[in-house]
């Protein structure tokens, strides 16, 4: 919501472009750590009470952001806000894994991603309207109000989904043991790499697009927000399409389509930045493709990662979220190293993220081969049925 106001934030807080982008970095680092800790805690303590605590802290941190007198205070408050938000996010994901599996899990996570995509559609538009009518600080007051609404929603509608008999023992030793178990799954690691790298490519855009479109191409905050919202809408539509394809088209193929589109957008962006001074139509088109492609990649790769470690849903989600948001937090300031007048670093990061994501899918998370199961004595139809189920990947396994 406050991304359209980055130039104004820098002016009001007497901060540089890189310092304002660091408020994104501290948020993402906090979110990564919050997920890393919140997941195992929810595996031990249950889902509901830690979720309530996280939403309370996030709401309080949003209030501090609204009152921040300096960019330093803003960075600290954003870290706490991200930590609590990441804590809540990983528990929400673990609740979904508690309640669904197989193709149903993929379908539900894509629907959740689609619904969640409403926020980045509405957010920048609302932020731009606030900027026109009031002050960027009102954006954080709005987030604090949304935190109160989320708290009410959790209290009214979210039950405890992890009964005591399914909880894991606590302590750092238990967390380390669970972490080793999830990281021992090669396919899980591959899908984490797919998600984390794609997120890095996406946040090269998020951290830099305001300067590319406003400072370099002269868009107003309202026009920038409309473009950002359209891109977010494309990501939402892509996620809903992926949900409809679950169980019909192999999930790995859907992810590969998204990765190919991301790589193409990055190459086109680099070409435009080096030789054509980043023309506005090219930048808008590349950003649209990048966001839509992310809607195909992230929910699907996250679902496949979770399907690899259902016995440690919280820890698996925590590691996935940690890698994802560390990538986002690391990429954000790097993307701005070139300053306000070049998109080359952002384009290179888009290309690198897409290439690493492809490597995670094709090289690390390799599909499982079909192997004989010794059922030759049975009828041909029974044998074929057993083989198809035994050799299927998580996204292909029938549910119900």
Task: Give a structural overview.
There is one protein chain. The chain has a single domain, classed as Up-down Bundle (Growth Hormone, Chain: A), CATH 1.20.1250. Helix content is 78%, strand content 0%. The chain contains 15 helices and no strands. The longest helix has 30 residues, at 186-215. The chain is globular, with a radius of gyration of 21 Å. Residues 372-400 have low confidence and may be disordered.
Summarize the entry for a quick read.
The protein has helices at residues 6-12, 17-45, 48-67, 71-99, 102-116, 118-133, 137-157, 172-183, 186-215, 221-245, 251-275, 280-308, 313-335, 344-364, 380-390. The protein is an all-alpha fold and 400 residues long. The longest helix has 30 residues, at 186-215.
Topology:
Layout: H1 6-12, H2 17-45, H3 48-67, H4 71-99, H5 102-116, H6 118-133, H7 137-157, H8 172-183, H9 186-215, H10 221-245, H11 251-275, H12 280-308, H13 313-335, H14 344-364, H15 380-390
Helix pairs in contact: 1-2, 2-3, 2-4, 2-13, 3-4, 3-7, 4-13, 5-10, 5-12, 6-10, 9-12, 9-13, 9-14, 10-12, 11-12, 11-14
């Amino acid at each position: 919501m406050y991304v359209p106001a980055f130039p104004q934030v820098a002016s009001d807080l007497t901060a540089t472009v890189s310092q304002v982008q660091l408020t994104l970095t501290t948020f993402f680092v906090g979110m990564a750590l919050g997920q890393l800790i919140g997941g195992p805690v929810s595996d031990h303590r249950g889902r509901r009470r830690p979720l309530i605590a996280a939403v309370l802290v996030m709401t309080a941190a949003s209030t501090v952001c609204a009152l921040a007198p300096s960019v330093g205070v803003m960075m600290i408050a954003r870290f706490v806000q991200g930590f609590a938000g990441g804590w809540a996010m990983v528990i929400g994901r673990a609740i979904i894994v508690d309640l669904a599996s197989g193709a149903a899990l993929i379908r539900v996570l894509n629907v959740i991603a689609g619904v969640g995509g409403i926020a980045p559609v509405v957010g920048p538009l609302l932020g731009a309207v606030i900027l026109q009518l009031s002050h960027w600080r009102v954006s954080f007051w709005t987030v604090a109000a949304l935190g109160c609404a989320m708290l009410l929603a959790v209290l009214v509608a979210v039950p405890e989904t992890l009964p005591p008999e399914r909880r894991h023992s606590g302590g750092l030793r238990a967390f380390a043991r669970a972490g080793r178990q999830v990281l021992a799954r090669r396919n899980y690691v591959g899908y984490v790499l797919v998600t984390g790298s794609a997120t890095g490519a996406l946040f090269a855009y998020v951290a830099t697009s305001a300067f590319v479109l406003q400072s370099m191409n002269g868009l107003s905050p309202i026009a920038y927000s409309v473009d950002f919202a359209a891109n977010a809408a494309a990501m939402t539509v892509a996620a809903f399409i992926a949900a409809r394809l679950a169980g019909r088209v192999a999930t790995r193929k859907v992810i590969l389509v998204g990765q190919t589109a991301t790589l193409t957008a990055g190459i086109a962006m680099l070409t435009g930045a080096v030789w054509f001074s980043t023309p506005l139509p090219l930048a808008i088109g590349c950003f649209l493709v990048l966001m839509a492609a992310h809607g195909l990649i992230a929910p699907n790769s996250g679902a496949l990662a979770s399907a690899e470690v259902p016995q440690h849903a919280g820890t698996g989600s925590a590691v996935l979220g940690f890698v994802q948001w560390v990538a986002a937090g690391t990429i954000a300031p790097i993307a701005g190293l070139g300053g306000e007048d070049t998109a080359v670093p952002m384009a290179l990061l888009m290309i690198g993220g897409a290439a690493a994501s492809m490597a995670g899918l094709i090289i690390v998370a390799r599909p499982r081969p079909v192997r004989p199961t010794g059922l030759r004595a049975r009828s041909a139809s029974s044998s074929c049925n057993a083989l198809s189920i035994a050799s299927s990947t998580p996204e292909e396994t029938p549910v119900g």
